[in-house]
Amino acid sequence: MPIRYKINVLAELKAKGYNTSRLRKEKLLAEATIQLLRHNQIVSYRNISRLCKLLECDIGDILEYREDSSR
Predict the structure, then answer these.
(1) How far is CA 1 from CA 17, 34, 52, 63, in A?
(2) Which residue would you say has higher pLDDT here, 68 or 20?
(3) Nearest-CA neighbor of 59 among 1, 2, 4?
(4) Element (H, E) at 51
(5) Residue 43's CB: how many other CB atoms inside 10 A?
(6) Cα–Cα distance between 63 and 37 in angstroms, integer?
(7) pLDDT per position as a tens digit, 5-62
(8) Is 2 helix (H, G, I), strand (E, B) or coil?
(9) CA–CA separation, 19 vs 63, rounded Å?
(10) Residue whose C-alpha is closest to residue 10's, from 22, 27, 25, 2
(11) DSSP letter at 63?
């Protein structure tokens, strides 16, 4: 897929004080979303928006577009 994460989202969240237990407990992200992030899979735009808010950044700080070189 040509859209990829530029950063390790869960590591960045942890650096901001949001470990996975806190994310679940405060219902900031669902367990399914956390699992997608663990496996480097893209989450919904709603969750991307929430990540931007939690990380205090823009979408371009999280995602990037790279042409698929296998084609």
Answers:
(1) 30, 19, 21, 12
(2) 20
(3) 4
(4) helix 45-55
(5) 19
(6) 12
(7) 999 999 999 999 999 999 999 999 999 999 999 999 999 999 999 999 999 999 999 9
(8) coil
(9) 21
(10) 22
(11) E
CB atoms within 10 A of CB 51: 25
Q: Is the pLDDT of residue 70 over 70?
A: no
Using CB atoms within 10 Å of the CB of residue 36, give its burial: 0 to 12 exposed, 13 to 18 middle, 19+ buried: middle
Q: Where are the domains of the chain?
A: 3-65
What pLDDT, on the 0 to 100 scale, is given for residue 1?
A: 72
Predicted local distance difference test score (pLDDT) of residue 40: 94
CB atoms within 10 A of CB 19: 12
Structure tokens belonging to residue 48: 């991307």
Q: How far apart are CA 12 and CA 19, in angstroms?
A: 10
